[in-house]
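Please go through this chain and its backbone structure tokens and walk me through the local backbone shapes. Keep your notes short.
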Amino acid sequence: MSDAYIALADGRVLEARARAPGRTRGELVFTTAYTGYEESLTDPSYAEQILTFSYPLIGNYGVRSERFESESVQPRAAIARELTDDVAEWLADEDVPAVDHVDTREIVTTVREEGAMACGIAAGPDATPEDAVEEMEACEPMSDHVDIGAQVSVTETTVYEGDGVADVALLDCGAKGSIISSLTERGADVHVLPYDSTPEDVADVDPDVLFVSNGPGDPENFIAAQAVVDAFAGDLPMAGICLGQQVITSALGGSTEKMAFGHRGVNQPVKDLRTEKVVMTTQNHGYTVADTGPLEVTQVNVNDDTVEGLDSEELDVITRQYHPEANPGPHDSLGFFDEVLELARSEPPVAAD
């Protein structure tokens, strides 16, 4: 008899095996990554989502905290064909429900055909199908999580020192730790500011570059971050990754839209339109840029032509939809951080409007 149930918005309830008990709900998504499960499970961009792994065995090289992208597990739950005891115990210790012994191919196919959807999970000796359905019916769409940044951001400014090469003001909308380390390893001092910081907060840092991080949810809900971008547009160099690209674009007059099931994995091909070179990238996003506003498209996704890179020489802006910093890789595009620091100006930035 099953001790775990997965309720899908299409009306089906799947039976599974409980590996970490609990009840929860979230947007059902999947990743095609065949490695990097520790990084995925600690990526703040998965907040309010239930993460399904398409690779059949998760946990085959243990759990090591030095690989974490944040201090805690971020998805609301994890689904796999098979979870090792190491991963199951880790998730149980974090009070994050986890289930396996389910046909993940069926789940992935469903999401690909029907789109990311509401999902409910009930796991443990007393779990019932009705419990999972109740959770699913209470699930809110991602765009309704209007203050999701509060769940994943620092609450006060934190400084990570490099070698003083440049001062980077990083708006933390759910930043992965490897973004910070990619900058400090290149000598930058990184000032990590809360997601709801004001233009005055950023001006107090006196940065050489404004960097908007990745993060979960709808970029249109990050109103404060957009206000910061608008205040410094044209006066301070700017960079962004993932949600950061979307926030910057929207603030500059462009627009974003929700994708059917998004891009999540470590094998997304991206073509640079200037060099004609194709690189493999790690991605994790459910929204994308629709209208680029004043920014020029420099890179596109080979699979669906969605925008992967933008820049503007006039505004000193450079952004990427994918994750150049991704661990455990690929590392084809780490040079992005060198480009970001090249934007740094020696003269003090103009004060916010």
About this structure: Residues 59 and 84 are 5 Å apart (CA to CA).
